Amino acid sequence: MDTGLQKYRAIVMAADTGSIVHAAEKLDYSVSSISRMIADVEADCGLRLFERSKTGVTPTQEGLRMIARARSIVAECDRFEEEAASLAGAEVGTVRVGTIASVSTHVLPPALKQLREQHPGIVCELLLGDYAEIESWLADGSVDLGTLRMPATAGYDTISLINDQHVAILPADHPAAKKKRFPLSGFSKEPFISLERGMVSEVAELFARNNVTVSPTFTAWDDYTIMAMVEAGLGLAILPSIMLQRCAYNVVALPLTVTAKRQIVMAWRNDHIPSPATQAFLETLPRVEAL
Question: How far is the C-alpha of 244 from the C-alpha of 222, rounded, in Å?
Fold first, then answer.
């Protein structure tokens, strides 16, 4: 491996783990070696890439930009090695996938099982985020594939993964639990539990489109936490219907009285040819007709 590339891997791993110690463990180097590599890169570019503290390292503003560039270089070198291995007849490589919770929970496990059975030399890394984060990762090359919602920004090729809808989540003993549908305006009259994962909220956009104002009583970042809170009678919520599969909570899901469909796709940049490992992973994914 090229010495420069080793240094770039070191700063990327330190940024991802937030720790020089953890970066050393992941890359199988000594802590002093990782520290020296990071110091060398900082000296070469004349910038301080990390703030150091007793709890770990945090990228500086300049560091964020340079780490993104290093991440792209590392990813491209990995793709080169994968392509060379493929041409030589070896099935190896790493596929990095940015994904939302509903896809990682209900869509990807069977695909990952098939990938492992058919291509045991290919490793898949999942990175959980929201749509804005995933699109950013796709843009800077941090991930090879990413789950986005339609309509997606131009510049991506896609295959459809999920067609579902947002539904109302109520406690089983709620007075409206036996109704056929739940009105969106009803959420403004009771405690509401909001699912938030960053700057983009599908539910907030749903309320805005229908001129409904709701002030969340609680906010959580996990679908299952929200269902547990609803079960406990802390409020109502709106979640994607796919999250109700194998649901262990005593809650009721009702369709909304407004259109709340969504289409989730697996996307990749159309200016990049997917690596052989990425192509192999794409072949394991289920195909769903686009809305």
Answer: 13
Expressed as residue numbers, the domain containing 249 is 163-262
Per-residue pLDDT, averaged over 84-90, amounts to 63
Number of residues in the chain: 291
Residues of 105-139 as b/e, b for ≥16 C-beta within 10 angstroms?
bbbbeebbeebeeebeebebeebebbbebbbbbbb
Domain contains 34:
yes
pLDDT by residue (tens digit) across 219-264? 888 888 999 999 999 999 999 998 888 788 999 999 999 988 889 9
Q: DSSP H helical segments within 88-151, as ranges? A: 101-106, 108-118, 131-140
Asked if residues 266 and 147 have their Cβ atoms less than 8 Å apart, the reply is yes
Distance between CA atoms of residues 169 and 238, nearest Å:
6
The amino acid sitting at 88 is A
Q: Angle CA(100)–CA(106)–CA(109) in degrees, nearest 5? A: 95
- Which helix (H) or strand (E) element contains residue 181? none
- Residues 130-154: pLDDT tens digits? 888 899 889 888 889 999 988 877 8
Looking up tokens 């990782």 gives 34
Tell me the sheet residues that pair with 264.
Answer: 149, 162
Looking at the structure of the chain, the number of domains it has is 2
Cα separation, 124 vs 136, in Å, equals 19
Q: How many CB atoms lie within 10 A of CB 179?
A: 16
171 and 177 Cβ atoms separated by less than 8 Å: yes
Task: Tell me the CATH number at 21.
Answer: 1.10.10.10
Tokens representing residue 22 in the block = 């953890």
Domain with residue 172: its CATH number is: 3.40.190.10
